[in-house]
Amino acid sequence: MQVLVEGLGHPEGPCLLQDGRVAFANSFRGEIGFWDPKGGSGTYAVTGGGPNACVLGSDGNLYCTNMPTVGEWTASDPRPPAIQRVSPDGKVEIVATTADGKELNAPNDLVFGPDGRLYFTDSGHWDPVARPHRGYVCMIEPDGSSHILEELDPVYPNGIVVEPDGALVWVESYARRLVRRSSTGQTELLRVLDEGHVPDGLKIDVDGNFWITSFSSGGVDVVARDGSYIDFLETGGVPTNCVFSGDRLYVTELGPKDLQDPMPMKGRLVRIEVGVFGMPLYYGSIRR
């Protein structure tokens, strides 16, 4: 494992840019940061609020989730819970603040599907004791209209991916569950992760296996498409999410494991040679 950037705030939701840089949401700093393999790191755009994940669109823009709080932390420059679009020149626009007319609580992770739609989880505020919000899985059409696909119990839906046949798969942090929703709308429980493995981020490899960043376990759980367990990859920190680049895995972490610190500023981006290629990504754009 190679540490690429240290001293970040709360990095989450990395994605690959067209020029080879790795972008990532940096919640506590209210910005999208980047790491450049040619050298250096910096700010891609200031979003305000608490950005939590970003994906690249076919239009060259980044699409980001933004929530006003992360656990006990509240943004000093708050923004409404929203999906944002960030252009390469740093311009930030709001794409959606509602789904089917319902205001979003705390959009978390997002992904484009093979149909060009943008799918995202709305987890609600992180509070595993009170569990104040129901969870939602939502979708935005290319024309900008947004809809609720699944209304869940207060399970904190988090990382989300789309399989080649259009099925959605997400993790539920409170319940430690991995769930699939078929393209026709049927849901199935694939696996409940072991005690102490609270899932956060999620990606999928070329063989259809799921790579689940588990912040409380200090590593990545690898689970087969049918839900059977494959392996555990220790990262040595508190991983939040990841993204494949070839057979390398870029992981955002909160730094050395210290879950007693509610506002860690030790975040880092690490790279691990895993010998497994990620599933090719899908791209889309929102015209609104």
Query: What fold name goes in the CATH topology slot?
Result: Neuraminidase
Strand content: over 45%
SSE arrangement, N to C: EEEEEEEEEEEEEEEEEEEEEEEEEEEE
Mean pLDDT: 94
Largest sheet, if any?
A: 4 strands, antiparallel
Unreliable runs, pLDDT <50, ≥5 residues? none
Tell me the total number of β-strands: 28
Q: Give the N-to-C terminal Cα separation.
A: 41 Å
Q: What share of residues is helical?
A: under 10%
- Please identify the top-level CATH class: Mainly Beta
CATH architecture: 6 Propeller
Q: Quickly count the helices.
A: 0
The outline comes out as globular
Question: What is the H level of CATH, i.e. the homologous superfamily?
Answer: TolB, C-terminal domain
Strand arrangement in the largest pleated sheet: 1-28-27-26
Number of separate domains: 1
Whole-angstrom Rg? 17 Å
Structural class: mainly beta
Provide a concise account of the structure shown.
This protein is an all-beta fold.
Notable characteristics:
mainly beta; single chain; Neuraminidase; 28 strands; 51% strand; globular; 288 residues; 4-stranded antiparallel beta sheet
Characterise this structure.
- The chain has 288 residues and is mostly beta strands.
- It has a single domain, classed as TolB, C-terminal domain (Neuraminidase, 6 Propeller).
- The chain has no helices and 28 strands.
- The strands form 8 sheets. It has a 4-stranded antiparallel β-sheet, with no helix packed on it. Strands 2-3-4-5 form a 4-stranded antiparallel β-sheet, with no helix packed on it.
- A hairpin with a 4-residue loop joins β19 (168-172) and β20 (177-181).
- The mean pLDDT is 94.
